[in-house]
Amino acid sequence: MNKSCPVVPSQLTSSTLRSSQFQTDIFCLREQDLLIHFAAEISQLQAHGLSREYALLQSMLSLLRSMHVLIILEEDASFLRYGYLSPDNAVGISKKVTILYSELRPHALALVSSFGIPDAFFSPIAFNWIDTNSWSSVQPQQGATISI
Question: How many other C-beta atoms can be found within 10 angstroms of the C-beta atom of residue 132?
């Protein structure tokens, strides 16, 4: 954030678009913009005191952080192999991950929608997994051929 902002050329050529410097710069601009907006929102919240939304955001980020760390500990065998975790601790971590999943479950849709991903990018299963997995949707349509 302390570096000067990269400048995007007004005329984008094919070689510019394929340039690693341009690609890095454009993502850097986007990242700086997101951080500036996030910092402004946090400053607003702090100016008005800790609000309920801020407390919820803080607890949700804490839950996600805990899940991230514990899932890495659970999935990476090197923590067991090199003695950072005992087998008993590994079992405890697995149980805690299951508990954290159940805590996160009620908030899953809100978290996914917070990314602002358009519906067109989701597969049909994201909207109605029962209909998507029904027998009629997996059977070939009449007149359709299956090629192997």
Answer: 13
Over residues 49-62, mean pLDDT:
74
**Residue 54 pLDDT level (bands cut at 50, 70, 90):** low
Q: What are the tens digits of pLDDT across the range 2-24? A: 567 777 777 888 888 888 888 88
What is the predicted pLDDT for the residue at 70?
92
Model's pTM, two decimal places? Answer: 0.49
Query: Given CA atoms 64, 70, 76, 79 in this order, what sign does their dihedral have?
Result: positive
Burial class (CB in 10 A: 0-12, 13-18, 19+), 45: middle
Q: Note the pLDDT of residue 53.
A: 67
Three-state DSSP at 73 gives helix
CA neighbours within 13 Å on the CB side: how many for 90? 16
Angstrom distance (rounded) from CA 137 to CA 125: 11
Both structure tokens of 103: 């805590």
Mapping DSSP to helix (H, G, I), strand (E, B) and coil, where does residue 45 land?
A: helix
Residue 25's contacts (CB-CB under 8 Å, 6 or more residues apart) are 6, 7, 8
